[in-house]
Amino acid sequence: MPTKILIPTPLRAYAEKHDSIEIAGTTVEEVLRNLTSRFTQLQRHLYNENGSLRSYVNVYVNDEDIRYLQKEKTPLKESDVISIIPSIAGGTEVNTLTVEREIQLSNEEILRYSRHLIIPEVGMQGQKRLKAAKVLLVGAGGLGSPLALYLAAAGVGKIGIVDFDVVDVTNLQRQVLHSTEDVGRSKLESARETIHGINPHVSVETYEVRLSSDNALELFAGYDVVIDGTDNFPTRYLVNDACVLLGKPNVYGSIFRFDGQVAVFDAQRGPCYRCLYPAPPPPGLVPSCAEGGVLGVLPGIVGSLQALETIKLIVGQGDLLIGRLVLFDALKFTFRELRLKKNPDCPICGNVPTIRELIDYEQFCGIERSPGNGNDHQQDQISVEQLKTRLDHGDDLYILDVREPHEYEIVNIGGHLIPLGELPEKIHTLDSSKEIIVHCKLGGRSAKAVDFLKKSGFKKVKNLIGGIDAWADRVDRTLPRY
Ligand code: ZN
């Protein structure tokens, strides 16, 4: 009896691009084994060296997380659907919010918020709670944009924003907080101006810092709710851990291409992000939006859902997404809701927590600090200027482009195209006696390719630092950047 398995976007490259597939087997364990023997490349993404499922992969049967229930061996029923949910980057009265302060609304505010005031679920009390609330947005990008706009419009009294980036022209496709004339300005300045334009009653506090273990607790302490609008795993784990340690709710959202995830993590009332994903995926498995792309409207939808949950948290109404993970597939237009369980062995919110203070999150996520500093790595790299000089010399170099065909179509420097996911099966087409220069868009995927080739015995392989983007920026400015 075949069982349907839903394959998530980041893993489809290893399953011949299938988004779902029917695989025979009587238990989850057997079905997954049959899946990985059919698509052998999936094996290393789903299982570790010891043969157990990797901790950044969750397996659901229908809407039930089977991993903590250890139901891998339970017989499957005919209509069961297995979902593989990798990491990508609750209705209770709110009692953690400090809204007891005396808050009054002016006549101008009463008029401005009249459409809220006439909903009984918000009313005067809810609007005063919104005015009293202090919300911290981590990130003023794709998710942070709709969040800042709607929270400001709704009358949240204080919005803090942490970001240290400047507005880039490639942000404008989705980061609607910023406009064309803001390109080159600090995102915080632009955000402050936009928010004040929408609602001058909002106090905006900006923090132009990289959120770190040294400043997170102090920063978060002054806020009632923290919203995770980041795009990288170290910051997600940092936001989670700081929220758990301080007992604050963490409104989580993430996006990738056409997929979105939303949840509210509040360790006092339900699971935390680590209960869902105890460990991050290895660097490079899940591409960033810069590498993987994202449909511009998707962060608008996901960020708006986060804003919705934040407002419900503050006014204390409705059923919150605590203990629930919502998955949105924009291409299929489907919302799925999965129930999340608190992991009793969670290292930060479980019965015997082992994490009692913030840790080194870059290290935890396997990210090397200052890549290129290690001597053994330096010889595996080449700068765009060095490559240009060597090509001008007429050196016999084999340029390997490991991006996707649609990226190659946008711009290329004449390299031989083998997408990273196809490299293992096409490795025999490469000549190990030649010097191979590998590039992608920014240098992340090509670093993985260089690593893979070295492990496969290739000696003369180098990664082009900064990828084709650096080439277009510093060598050939006639090329388009994307
Ligand atoms: Zn936890």
Overview of this protein structure:
It is a single chain. The protein is an alpha/beta fold and 482 residues long. It has 3 domains: 2-86, Beta-grasp domain (Ubiquitin-like (UB roll)), CATH 3.10.20; 133-364, Rossmann fold, CATH 3.40.50; 375-474, Oxidized Rhodanese, domain 1 (3-Layer(aba) Sandwich), CATH 3.40.250.10. It contains 20 helices and 18 strands. The chain has helices at residues 9-12, 28-38, 40-46, 107-112, 114-117, 123-132, 144-154, 187-198, 216-221, 233-246, 273-276, 289-292, 297-315, 361-364, 375-378, 384-392, 405-410, 423-426, 444-455, 467-474, and strands at residues 2-6, 20-24, 57-61, 64-65, 81-86, 134-138, 158-162, 203-207, 225-228, 250-256, 259-265, 324-329, 334-339, 381-382, 397-401, 416-417, 435-439, 461-464. The strands form 3 sheets. It has an 8-stranded mixed beta sheet with strand order 8-7-6-9-10-11-12-13, with helices on both faces. It has a 5-stranded mixed beta sheet with strand order 2-1-5-3-4, with helices on one face. A 5-stranded parallel beta sheet has the order 14-18-17-15-16. Helix 7 (144-154) runs parallel beside helix 8. Bound molecules: zinc ion. Residues 267, 271-272, 274-275, 343, 346, 348-349 line the site of zinc ion. Zinc ion is lined by residues 267, 271-272, 274-275, 343, 346, 348-349.
Chain-wise SSE layout:
Layout lengths: L1 E5 L2 H4 L7 E5 L3 H11 L1 H7 L10 E5 L2 E2 L15 E6 L20 H6 L1 H4 L5 H10 L1 E5 L5 H11 L3 E5 L24 H12 L4 E5 L8 H6 L3 E4 L4 H14 L3 E7 L2 E7 L7 H4 L12 H4 L4 H19 L8 E6 L4 E6 L21 H4 L10 H4 L2 E2 L1 H9 L4 E5 L3 H6 L5 E2 L5 H4 L8 E5 L4 H12 L5 E4 L2 H8 L8
Parallel strand pairs: 1-5, 6-7, 6-9, 7-8, 9-10, 14-18, 15-16, 15-17, 17-18
Antiparallel strand pairs: 1-2, 3-4, 3-5, 10-11, 11-12, 12-13
Bound molecules: zinc ion.
The site of zinc ion has 9 residues, from helix 11.
